[in-house]
Amino acid sequence: MTRFPEAVLLLIVGVVLGPDGLSLLSDRVLAIVDPAMPVALVALGMLVGVHSSVQGRREKWLFAAAATEAAITGTVVTAGLLLTTPIGGSPPVLIALVLGVCAASSAAASWRPAAERMIAERIGELDALLPIAVGAAALAWLRTPSLAEAILLALQACGVALVIVAATWLLIARAASEIEQRVFTVALLLLLGGAADYLSLSSLLSGLVAGLFLERVGGPARDAISRNVLQFERPLIALVLLVIGARVDLPPAAVGLGVAFLVLRSSGKLVGGWMAARVAGTVTPRQLGAGLLAPGVLGLAFALNAVRVTGPEGAIILGAATVGTVGSELIAALVRREPS
After folding, report:
1. How many other CB atoms are there within 10 angstroms of residue 234's CB atom?
2. How confident is the model at residue 117 (pLDDT cuts 50, 70, 90)?
3. Model confidence over 208-232: pLDDT tens digits?
């Protein structure tokens, strides 16, 4: 998976090549590559699902710790933005909630001793599950009058994803060659991404559901799909970051919201890491919280997903998430320089 600072560089390149820069990624070009975005988000969600199998007592405690940390971070960011920052757009609660989801996931830093690093990395993998689920409900809520209907709509999207991935799994299990397996994998990504985009729902959730299904059923078909998705993942995510850089708009309101996002996310990660370490019982609170400051790309991916659902009104979400995510990586880089 593409990690920062690689992602920061790709964002900068996207800004330079975008409509406000050299215009190589003009609005017309962006419109051409736009249909590939849901496919890339599905691939990212699928890889999260495939690597999120929880087995054994120790893994269950780590999952509980990851969910605790993600919930605290998301709550701190959402509540903090509502209480301290004027949020333009409608409705402000949903904008704050979406940004809280963007803040919750982590890419664990690899600057601690091996045993601590392994635990932090595992929690960093598992803390994406809750934000993707909550984020899917939030996106569905934008299209429905009530939260109950939004949850039902998200569950229906999960059902669609399960039908698609189960059918593809059966086809790949009977495929005679690796080329056929690759074709079916591409078809799976296209169908999942197309269905989520058509319904204006979370592509990340569709990918996550597919990944969890594949991890559960296992077998050669699961291995083939995972191997093929990994081959597509890096170029697809690089394309997503370039598009985000080209599309991002940073008016003063978005920058101010992004700075507040950065401060609240850092505070939420430290507090959430402290609580997660208590739940896991394996890493000192200070070490775990600092190790989870690095943001990864999931937050930005979800922000892009939100913009696709909300349209131009969601541009402030992408701008604020970009400012906050880049700032979080800078803070994480400074922390990494401390002696362990």
Report:
1. 13
2. low
3. 999 999 988 888 888 888 888 888 8
Amino acid letter for position 204? L
Which domains occur in the chain, in start order?
A: 37-336 (1.20.1530)
Task: Return the H-helix or E-strand segment holding 261.
Answer: helix 252-280
Query: Residue 14, Cα to own-chain centre: how many angstroms?
Result: 19
Contact between 102 and 304 under an 8 Å Cβ cutoff? The reply is: no
Could you give the count of Cα atoms lying within 13 Å of 55 in the half-sphere of its Cβ?
A: 6
CB 150 within 8 A of CB 141: yes
| Residues 14-45: tens digit of each pLDDT | 999 989 888 888 989 988 998 899 999 999 99
Output phi, psi for 76, to 5 deg: -60, -45
Q: Burial level of 239, CB count in 10 A (0-12/13-18/19+)?
A: middle
The first and second tokens of residue 120, run together, are 């932090």
Distance in angstroms (rounded) separating the CA atoms of residues 200 and 44: 18
pTM of the model: 0.88
- Please name which of 165, 189, 166 lies closest in space to residue 43, comparing C-alpha atoms: 189
Structure tokens at 95: 């904008």
| Phi-psi region at 200: left, alpha or beta (left = phi > 0; alpha = psi -120 to 50) | left
86: Cβ contacts below 8 Å, ≥ 6 apart: none
Q: For residue 99, give the nearest of 109, 114, 89 by alpha carbon.
A: 89
Tokens of 224: 């083939």
Phi-psi region of 315 (alpha: psi -120 to 50; beta: other; left: phi over 0): alpha
Q: Give buried/exposed letters for 201-231 (b at 16+ CB in 10 A, else e).
A: bbbbbbbbbbbbbbbeeeeebbebbbebbee
Tell me if 88 sits within 8 A of 316, measured CB to CB: yes
The residue count of the chain comes to 340
Q: What is the dihedral of CA 124, 317, 332, 74, to 10 degrees?
A: -50
Structure tokens, 46: 């699928």
Lowest-confidence pick of 29-33, 117-121, 282-286: 282-286
